[in-house]
Design goal:
There is one protein chain. This protein is an alpha/beta fold. It folds into two domains: 1-83 and 164-175 and 191-266, Rossmann fold; 91-161, no CATH class. 36% of the residues lie in helices and 26% in strands. The chain has nine helices and twelve strands. The strands form three sheets. Strands 6-7-8-3-9-10 form a six-stranded mixed sheet, with helices on both faces. It has a four-stranded antiparallel sheet with strand order 2-1-4-5, covered by helices on one side. β7, α6 (176-193) and β8 form a beta-alpha-beta unit. α3 packs across α4. The structure holds adenosine-5'-triphosphate and magnesium ion (MG). Residues 13, 18, 36, 38-44, 204 line the site of adenosine-5'-triphosphate. Adenosine-5'-triphosphate binds at residues 13, 18, 36, 38-44, 204.
């Protein structure tokens, strides 16, 4: 079943076209990686899906439901449903430095008036789902490492049980060890949630995207220049821009679909 579909999505900032007729689809249970260099339009794509920027043409469909032109009360109702959740490029944007991790994660549940005992259980299961221990819940964000903070931000998005998670550069700010832990957490999440969850993961780092994505979409100056199975794109990139991205990474580890071992490039 198609969870997210973009049809010729176009976004302009004033007279500058930032996304130009983008089309892509993501099935339930799938992880699609969007890769492109800084300024290629990745965050704008996320914002168009989240409906925090308006598109000038085209459509965004979630579960077959056209959300492109929702306004006012209808848009607020859609947001409250929690169907699509966004994890910011900077995790500190979703974790208030003065508020304990447990409360930050529970915020979405408090808004929808979930009873405290139920909320506590859901918060605990969300942090466990991203590989964090529940002892972190009573700390402030300053008491967590960068990788733990990023996973707490993911838990915060997960706790409202979204159908689609949009992650904007989830590992870019992290060192190699933390990056690997976040990638592992996302891989574990796709296994445990199966068809209940789809993920659109945005990054300029094709290496970490390839490790968790079924498909890659390559964005270059607001246009999709390549879209296909991760394995095919890495083994046989068609566009020179994709080739350059791949050449910038020494070894690309591909696990999906159905590929357990790392693929070393010559
Ligand atoms: N609010 C805005 N007004 C005008 N131009 C904008 C606005 N936001 C982004 N842009 C421009 O749109 C283009 C795409 O920006 P976007 O943030 O989507 O890129 P990105 O791929 O996420 O980059 P990065 O990897 O650095 O996060 C850039 O040229 C940027 O300067
Ligand atoms: Mg960005």
């Amino acid at each position: 079943m198609t969870l997210l579909e973009l049809r010729d999505l176009t976004v302009d900032y004033g007279r500058v076209r930032v996304l130009d007729a983008l089309s892509l689809s993501l099935r339930a249970g799938q992880v699609v990686g969007v890769v492109g260099e800084s300024g290629s339009g990745k965050t704008t794509l996320a914002k168009a899906v989240l409906r925090t920027v308006d598109s000038s043409a085209g459509q965004v469909l979630v579960d077959g439901h056209d959300i492109t032109r929702l306004r006012g009360a209808a848009l607020r109702r859609w947001r409250r449903s929690g169907t699509v959740q966004y994890v910011f490029q900077d995790p500190l944007r979703s974790l208030d430095p003065g508020i304990r991790i447990a409360e930050s994660i529970a915020e979405g549940l408090r808004i929808s008036r979930v009873p405290a005992a139920v909320a506590r259980e859901r918060v605990e299961s969300a942090v466990q789902a991203v590989g964090l221990g529940t002892e972190l819940l009573d700390r402030l964000p300053s008491g967590l490492s960068g990788g733990q903070r990023q996973r707490a931000a993911i838990a915060r998005a997960l706790v409202v049980e979204p159908r689609l998670l949009v992650l904007d550069e989830p590992v870019s700010a992290l060192d190699a060890a933390s990056r690997d832990r976040v990638v592992q957490a996302l891989i574990a999440l796709r296994r445990s949630r199966g068809e209940q969850l789809g993920m659109l993961v945005i990054s300029h780092d094709i290496g970490s995207l390839a490790a968790m994505s079924d498909r890659l979409v390559v964005l270059h100056r607001g246009r999709i220049v390549e879209d296909g199975l991760t394995r095919q794109i890495v083994a046989d990139p068609q566009h020179p821009y994709t080739r350059r991205l791949i050449e910038s990474v020494p070894v690309i580890d591909i696990r999906f679909p159905n590929r357990p071992a790392p693929l070393a490039r010559s």
